């Protein structure tokens, strides 16, 4: 064990942090750094620039010298715009129950820290986004994972089996599977949450990228507004990943608790991004439609090609395909990278039940996607 000034290093670091596994996605990113020859379907990041109108508003605001802190909760104009915008997902939240966050990432963190007491159970249906488990553990929770293969939907019976839980984290359209939840699916989850007396943390970051049916927020279901924390943001819908902007809509007490944490650890979300976000919600619809149409075209093409060699469920949304590869996912991803210069993420990075799958993000140009599809199909045929 390493020693610094006579103190054992392990004692210097919080035990929970020291025991966290490194992200399975990160490992694959590291392998492709600086490799121009690789087509990366690994990154869950839009390949579009931030729409020009949004950039323009942010540039003007900088020219005007608007660079100070905003109120902790976020600009009232932005919170009002979010409240009106959310109506399209089924309910109009009170702007006073909205916190503008530094991305959905912060929203997940403060929602968990606001509600978890040590040892409380948090249910995480898997495969799922990589931060849910580590952030739950850091908040002091006991994580209960529920595998959702093969249809990737959490079922009432599986959820209520847990007996007692403080929270259920859901994400739809889903990263990594692309699956979204219908009204009936949402009702099952809502009924289970009531049965367990659990709070639902609903990560709706891909709500705008829904292709099969219109996105409905679970908070809009009868009787659910008081037990749902809705998280959403601008990273995926408006291609604003690096601007770090999102928001949380939370019921009374949970809202107060989240705001307390946010005010101490973040003060406020970046002001320039908040100004960009106002423009996005006011005038961004045509940009949204343009990007959504392009993702849809890519999805249809890519799924058709992958079906030549794999079993592929048609994704309902987001920009991911999660084919079943019938091989060890890490070995497959590594060989694909070294032999064919295509980067994908092994499915087990999103939970054990993701083993045997890979995640491919189609957030690359059609030209690159075609080339990647040729290489993947060729590789899969060769290894049989
Ligand atoms: N939630 C999900 C499901 C995601 O896929 C991501 C990013 O990939 C995030 C949250 C993080 O979003 P943000 O950039 O708003 O922090």
TrEMBL record:
A GO molecular function held by the record: transaminase activity
Membrane-crossing residue ranges in chain numbering: none
Cofactor: pyridoxal 5'-phosphate
Entry's Gene Ontology BP terms: amino acid metabolic process
Signal peptide: none
One Pfam family matching this protein: Aminotran_1_2
CDD domains assigned to the protein according to its UniProt record, in alphabetical order: AAT_like
InterPro entries noted in UniProt: Aminotransferase_I/II_large, AspAT/PAT-like, NHTrfase_class1_PyrdxlP-BS, PyrdxlP-dep_Trfase, PyrdxlP-dep_Trfase_major, PyrdxlP-dep_Trfase_small
Domain of life: Archaea
Keyword set, alphabetical order: Aminotransferase, Pyridoxal phosphate, Transferase
PROSITE patterns found in the cross-reference section: AA_TRANSFER_CLASS_1
Enzyme Commission (EC) number: 2.6.1.-
Keyword hit for Transferase: yes
Ranges of residues in domain Aminotransferase class I/classII large: 37-376
Family listed: Belongs to the class-I pyridoxal-phosphate-dependent aminotransferase family.
Record PANTHER family: ASPARTATE AMINOTRANSFERASE (PTHR46383), ASPARTATE AMINOTRANSFERASE-RELATED (PTHR46383:SF3)
Subunit description: Homodimer.
The protein, known as: Aminotransferase
């Amino acid at each position: 064990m390493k020693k610094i000034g006579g103190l054992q290093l392990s004692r210097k670091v919080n035990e929970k942090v020291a025991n966290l596994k490194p992200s399975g996605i990160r490992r694959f990113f590291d392998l492709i750094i600086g490799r121009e020859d690789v087509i990366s379907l690994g990154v869950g990041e839009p390949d579009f620039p931030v729409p020009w109108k949004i950039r323009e508003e942010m540039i003007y605001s900088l020219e005007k010298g608007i660079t100070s802190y905003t109120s902790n909760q976020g600009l009232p104009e932005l919170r009002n715009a979010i409240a009106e915008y959310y109506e399209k997902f089924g309910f109009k939240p009170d702007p006073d129950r909205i916190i503008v966050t530094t991305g959905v990432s912060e929203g997940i963190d403060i929602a968990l820290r606001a509600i978890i007491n040590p040892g409380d159970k948090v249910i995480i249906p898997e495969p799922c986004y990589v931060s849910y488990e580590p952030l739950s553990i850091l908040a002091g929770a006991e994580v209960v994972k529920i595998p959702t293969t093969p249809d990737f939907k959490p079922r009432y019976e599986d959820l209520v089996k847990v007996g007692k839980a403080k929270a259920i984290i859901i994400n739809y359209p889903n990263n990594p599977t692309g699956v979204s939840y219908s009204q009936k699916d949402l009702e099952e989850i809502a009924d289970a949450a009531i049965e367990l007396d659990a709070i639902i943390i609903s990560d709706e970051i891909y709500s705008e990228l829904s292709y099969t049916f219109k996105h409905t927020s679970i908070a809009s279901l009868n009787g659910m507004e008081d037990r749902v924390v809705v998280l959403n943001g601008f990273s995926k819908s408006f291609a604003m990943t690096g601007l770090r902007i999102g928001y949380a809509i939370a019921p009374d007490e949970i809202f107060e608790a989240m705001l307390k944490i946010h005010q101490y650890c973040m003060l406020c979300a970046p002001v320039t991004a908040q100004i960009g976000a106002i423009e996005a919600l006011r005038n961004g619809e045509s940009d949204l439609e343009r990007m959504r149409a392009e993702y849809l075209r890519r999805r249809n093409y890519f799924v058709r090609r992958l079906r030549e060699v794999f079993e592929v469920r048609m994704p309902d949304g987001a920009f991911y395909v999660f084919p079943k590869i019938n091989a060890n996912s890490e070995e497959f991803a590594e060989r694909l990278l070294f032999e064919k210069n295509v980067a994908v993420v092994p499915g087990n990075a999103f939970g054990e039940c993701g083993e045997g799958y890979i995640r491919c993000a189609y957030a690359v140009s059609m030209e690159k996607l075609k080339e990647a599809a040729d290489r993947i199909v060729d590789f899969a045929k060769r290894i049989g």
